[in-house]
Amino acid sequence: MTAPAPSEKALVPFVSVDNMMRLVHHIGLERLLFELTDVIEADFCRWEAFDKTPRIASHSRDGVIELMPTSDGEIYSFKYVNGHPKNLALGFQTVTAFGLLAEVSTGYPVLLTEMTLLTALRTAATSALAARHLAPKGSHTMALIGNGAQAEFQALAMKAVLGLETVRLFDIDQRATEKVLRNLAGSGLDVIACNSAETAIEGAQIITTCTADKQYATILTDNMIGSGVHINAIGGDCPGKTELHRDILLRADTFVEYPPQTRVEGEIQQMDPNYPVTELWQVIAGLADGRREAGQITLFDSVGFAIEDFSALRYVRSRVRETGLFQEIDLIADPDDPRDLFGMLQRSNTLKDCA
């Protein structure tokens, strides 16, 4: 005798790392980045529909473990993510993640998925979304300072969304730059390795900083930044971790995701509490100005926010259905009588004895 099969609600679609990679190749990386950018943009346009809270962080001397929840009233999402810069020396990822979607009406999960790859994709798509609204029109060259795990995704998202042509690379670890050169060969981008950050930003309309060290750092100094550029600062994403000299922020118009989180974690943690910022969603929704003039310096002080993960999760859920690139896992206890969880446990032992 065998136990009754779980009901449909008890079986949760699970997207493994292997299936996430298959999904990316099925859709096409640049097409996926373009589509994901549009999904994030659509959710930013309904920003006020979401529950919003700064991520819940557990800090240690080795790194941070965070939970990032949100809901639009119908679907709830959360992401578990860590940040451990020292992991690289151990041969581990510095960032790993997984995420979940659930029905608000029942609380039942409807998707469980890896999010280490998906976080890289959504971070790149969010950077491209900000550049779509803030970078100079016709931007064709980006300087990429910090050539770690995010670098290729950032470059290809800018290519897919903005038509970027040239990427100028610098990292203090030459092996990281060589890795990006290999990985972007044949991408259609002109990829140039540079021997300093100053050289890398020459001729760039977009400057992206993406470094991993958990410390106050000065990757860009004020004298390096000319008028008219757009800066994506995505490396500063926790207390005590920055990349830009504060004088740059005094010259720039700064755009953020969610101010209560960014003022603690972003570049603006260096600034006075009343330092003026504009929320990116307001620009996207047409409620605030973005780039007003050619000489303006715009800064997207990006720390990553839960609504972006929500967008990425709902995108995967919609796209994975048609592919079958998931497994159904028996995640939720499913007694015939919802009041009799103990009885289900007891019967399972009886059925095992009868087998």
From TrEMBL:
Keyword entries, A-Z: NAD, Plasmid
InterPro entries: NAD(P)-bd_dom_sf (IPR036291), ODC_Mu_crystall (IPR003462), ODC_N (IPR023401)
UniProt key word Hydrolase: no
Domain of life: Bacteria
Any Pfam family hit: OCD_Mu_crystall
The keyword NAD appears for this protein: yes
Similarity-based family: Belongs to the ornithine cyclodeaminase/mu-crystallin family.
NCBIfam families for the chain: PRK07589.1
Protein name: Ornithine cyclodeaminase
